[in-house]
Predict the 3D structure of the following.
Amino acid sequence: MTPGRFSDALGAVAGTIIGLDREAEILAAALDTGRHVVLDGPPGTGKSSLLRVVCRAAGSGFVFVEGNAELTPNRLLGSYDPAMVLEGGYRPEAFIEGPLIRALQEGSVLYLEELNRIPEETLNVLITSLEEGEAHVPRFGTVEAHPGFRLVAAMNPFDSVGTSRISHAISDRTCRIAIGYQDAAREREIVALEHQAPPELMAFAVELTRSTRHHPEVRIGSSVRGAIDMTVLAVALGERRAADPMTRAVAGDAAQAALSGRIRLGEAAERTPDEVIAELFAQLWERWFAEEPGKAGSLHPDRGGGRAGR
Ligand SMILES: Nc1ncnc2c1ncn2[C@@H]1O[C@H](COP(=O)(O)OP(=O)(O)O)[C@@H](O)[C@H]1O
Ligand SMILES: [Mg+2]
């Protein structure tokens, strides 16, 4: 591979990915120098988007695999087509390459999401490819890694399933890049990238979404995806009801639908997710309209004049 091609492609990240400049730079440096990487961050923080953009701009192949308990070694490596085997035996043509074999042969980036959910035996297959630069497939033989092959795995720090199990085997062979939530201004930019909507609605949706991350009864709050959905829904509902999306009934219905299914409550929570979202919504709604627009540290920086009577 061309040295530096990922770093050379970093210009493409600007404008598509909000924030994450430093993380993108480190990711590109790691890929350029043949490192394998773990992206460690909550869902919806832009891990997949960042890697996809960087790979596309660098002209690198990108093979995506969703990690879960059903990702067996055979699914990762590939398997023989039973009909073709019956007909002509275990010939190479009867082998259907799985994502790991494809990535090794093409010299692509294998992107494995939810690394902490994959079974132990599948992890061992991955470790062999990282350590020996090859994979062994029964009856098919050994597949050597093209020099462009990289593994990028994503992990969710809230997902305690198996995190310690994988930590040693994989973390000793990968570099780790932590990815967190963006600040409010950047989250507003992300929503605006995805959807055209009144700035005040986007700002409110971002603020409400962020408040789910600090509620004492909530274990995992919503990512910016919740703000995107709330914005889209409020605009559509407002049109349907011939109302401003920033009216309480419209924004409230959109907030419930966008956020109540996205939060995870802690063990000790006594209320339902709907109740928690309703409470957060009511609190923010009151503060939002009590506050003078435009003053320093305002909740709604984009709001022009005060609009009363909702
Ligand atoms: N920093 C960011 N820049 C641009 N878009 C983002 C960013 N973070 C999240 N998004 C948007 O939010 C959604 C979720 O992002 P994604 O990359 O799938 O997150 P992850 O892989 O971390 O779960 C996408 O629609 C993406 O466009
Ligand atoms: Mg993702």
About this structure: The domain at 5-178 is CATH 3.40.50.300 (Rossmann fold). The longest strand covers residues 150-155. The first helix runs from residue 5 to 8.
